[in-house]
Amino acid sequence: MNQSFFLDRASGWHALHPLTKLAVALAIAVTVFCVRWNYISVALFVFIILPIAVWAKIWREVLRTTFTVILPLAISLVLVQGFFYPGATDVIWQIGPFSLKREGLEFAFVTATRLMVIAGAGLLVVYATHPADLARALVQAGAPYSLAYIIVTAIQLLPEMQARADGILNAQQARGLETTGSLRVRIAAFVPLIAPLVYGALENVQERALALDARAFRAARPKTSWRELRDSQAQRVARVLLIIFSILVVLVSLQAALWQNSPLVLR
Amino acid sequence: MDIQVSELYFTFRGGSEVLRGISFEIRAGSRIALLGQNGAGKTTLVKHLNGLLKPTRGDVRIGDWNTREHSIAQFARRVGFVFQNPDDQLFKTSVAAEVAFGPTNLKLDAAEISRRVGRALEVCALQEVRDAHPYDLASWQRRWVAIASVVAMQTPIVILDEPTTGQDAFGLARLAELLDEWKRAGVTVIAVTHDIDFAAEQFPELMVMAQGQVLARGDAEILNEPALTERAALDAPQLMQLARALGWQRAPVTVDAFCAELAAKK
Amino acid sequence: MSILRVEQLSFQYLQANRNALRAVTCEFEPGTVTAIVGANGAGKSTLCFALAGFIPHFFRGKLQGKVYVNGADTQQTPLAQLVTQVGMVFQNPFNQISGAKLTVSEEVAFGLENLGIARAEMETRVARTLQLFDLQHVAQQSPFALSGGQQQRLALASIFIMEPPVMILDEPTAQLDPHGTRQVMKTIQTLAAHGRTIVLVEHKLEWVARLAARVLVLDKGALVADGEPRAILSRANAWGLIETRYARAARAAMERGLIEKKELLPQTLEQAKDWFQIEG
Question: For chain C, what is the mean pLDDT?
């Protein structure tokens, strides 16, 4: 049973400090949202994300997950935006009363590829970072320990949630609850399926909180770490540069939005 | 209503083979305890008996229905299932409403539902808490709510997954009474349990599983076979162990049988 | 001198309409194994929570009386400090896995991280603890991949490593199969052999008789019996406890006049063998 996204492979990317990896992901995310060029997402994916994924030996997983997440989204975007994009006029294809329009397709393309880049950048971090290291790095960066803990465990406890959801479905169906069929049936099934999940989660939260307290989770003294985080001067500099870069990108795009003709903006 | 399992194989998606060629028949009104270590496939097997899982190969028939051909909700008329974790099902704001959920799904009329709920609450000693919120009850009481919610469905077949967990002597006595009541009503009861003493005392038939197969089936006498209990990683019932330690030929498993044997020795 | 002292302890949970504990007074000697037994709702878990400081630091309600651990008043001592004095292990092994760690080694070290123990010391303690709890061969596995019995041993190890002299175990085998139960009981024996003071809540009386030197009985929140296991457990049916079949058969044999009446009933296979053999 794999309870984590982390893929433990020996690579230079893995060895980087979690904050460095986060800074790279942040810079990618900011760029993809701020640069108004339709192909920026594809460029970032091909020339930045993929090479890093290859370097980290996780390109197969990154590609697979990115596309399984993005593909259904992309298809629905193309259908909805392609046919119903407000104000679009450039008809490419007519089918009955519906017409596929270029502006809608363009919008769908830009949105889908942006999401693809965000997913890819996020996966670069979570696939190549031990969750405990991520938590520790977040704490170092000033996040409260309990928040970092919640972020990290949320990912790991997903399979538990899934198992409980399956158990609940079984239990209610066994008592004659219909869960498939008309919309009315599905809506009626909502409460019997969701309520036990919420109640149960609350019960578990209490037990988990007790068990954490039993292990001095809320001790006020400074904590130590079983795993060691490696950092370097070069990485610290790189992080500062990446953050300055991200801020600059945001500022420039803001400026472009305010003064339409800025020479700095790619079109 | 008979249960017919033939050449049942089951593999979890992308996983290992959990059930490996199981065939048996359970006649209406039988009472069987299913024994075996964790991972032997007991829960996986019983989940086939109401269609929660469908065979990878082979067939499971409940009466004239093949589990492949009917929905789980349809099977709720034939098979009641008390799960290990009551918290997986409780969602109503009162115990009585929770117990009424199953009968309501069976589309019974209001009078019948209220009669059944009243009866189930009585059998499970829950009348005093009938208006309480299930989540305000202790976990052992919530188990009884789950049991009552199946009792109220009055199915010809009942499956119990680890019914003795967390019960004290009062709970075990009540469980024994409930089993008696089901016996009188001719209900088929199949219980998955680790409590071998309870199983040996309360169930005329035992079925021992290991590694996805049924190793043996019969009365408690089958446990008097060290090769079997070892292979299934089971302890023999306490009185059977005692009889062996005393060098007796026969190995009784109930207090009555033990005393009878003791009297015969004197 | 006792390591754990309870004085006139009463507790009522917030929103409850009756006391979960009623004027309980008892003491525990260092290095002993004491079992707490009682029917459902007798207050066993509540007493555990009070011994470990979760009452009043986690559960709120009306508290009277005192609990002293190693002389320290639990009401005046912060929980994070108490856990180095008294550790608690719960029923559900799964809910005790922190979820923040990927391997058994890291999981065991979690408490030490929180206590700020230096890395070098952590390593020695983790290695020693894994060995002691027979977890060294799964050290690099995910805690989630372990069997129930292994997970519960991991929970025990995770508390043990913080070196509390007292360990409170609240039905640690309730959710395990017989194999897992045996594993955990063996581990508890090891803990006792290492001089830990153990308070064990347990339904299975044969194990109580085998492990404990003393038994406390709770009934509706009150401490109603306290003494040597065999003497106490011979009256088990008076308090809604599930008697061993040995004791039940012995009582039936006496009632039917097959064996002359005796005060002590057998609780383990060995005791039962003696009990029936002398007569038989």
Answer: 93
From the candidates C276, C278, C279, which should be mutated to test the interface with B, based on the most B CB atoms within 10 A?
C276
Looking at chain B, which residues constitute the CATH 3.40.50.300 domain(s)?
3-234
Nearest Cα residue in chain C from B260: C253
The answer on A209 and A147 residing in a single domain is yes
| Per-residue model confidence (pLDDT) at position C23 | 97
Tokens of C68: 């002293």
Is residue A261 predicted with pLDDT exceeding 70? no
User: What are the structure tokens assigned to A22, written together?
Assistant: 């986060």
Looking at the structure, tell me whether residues C144 and C65 fall in a common domain: yes
ipTM: 0.92
Joined together, the tokens standing for residue A84 give: 């119903």
The verdict on residue A173 lying in a domain is yes
* Tens-digit pLDDT profile for residues B21-79: 999 999 999 999 999 998 899 999 999 999 999 999 999 999 999 999 999 999 999 99
- Its domain, for residue C84, covers 4-243
**A215/C142 CB distance under 8 A:** no
Shared domain check, A244 and A204? no
Count of domains for chain C: 2
β pairing state of B79-82 and B157-161: parallel
Interface test with C, best of A213, A223, A225 (most C CBs within 10 A): A213
Same domain, A11 and A126: yes
Number of domains observed in the structure of chain A: 2
Q: Domain B3-234: which topology?
A: Rossmann fold (3.40.50)
- Residues from chain B that touch A174, judged by Cβ atoms under 8 A, are 50, 52, 72, 75-76, 79-81, 83
Task: Inspect the interface and report whether the beta carbons of A160 and C115 lie closer than 8 Å.
Answer: no
**CB atoms < 10 A from the CB of C85, how many?**
21
Per-chain mean pLDDT for chain A: 87
| Domain with A117 in it | 1-130+227-267
pLDDT tens readout for residues B212-262: 999 999 999 999 999 999 999 999 999 999 999 999 988 899 999 999 999
Tokens of A66: 């990115």
Q: Where are the beta strands (DSSP E) in chain C?
A: 4-13, 21-28, 33-37, 61-69, 72-73, 86-89, 166-170, 197-201, 214-219, 222-227
Under an 8 A CB cutoff, do C174 and B165 touch?
yes
| Residue A122 shares a structural domain with residue A238 | yes
- pTM for the model stands at 0.86
Tell me which residue of B164, A13, A216 sits closest to C178, measured CA to CA. Answer: B164
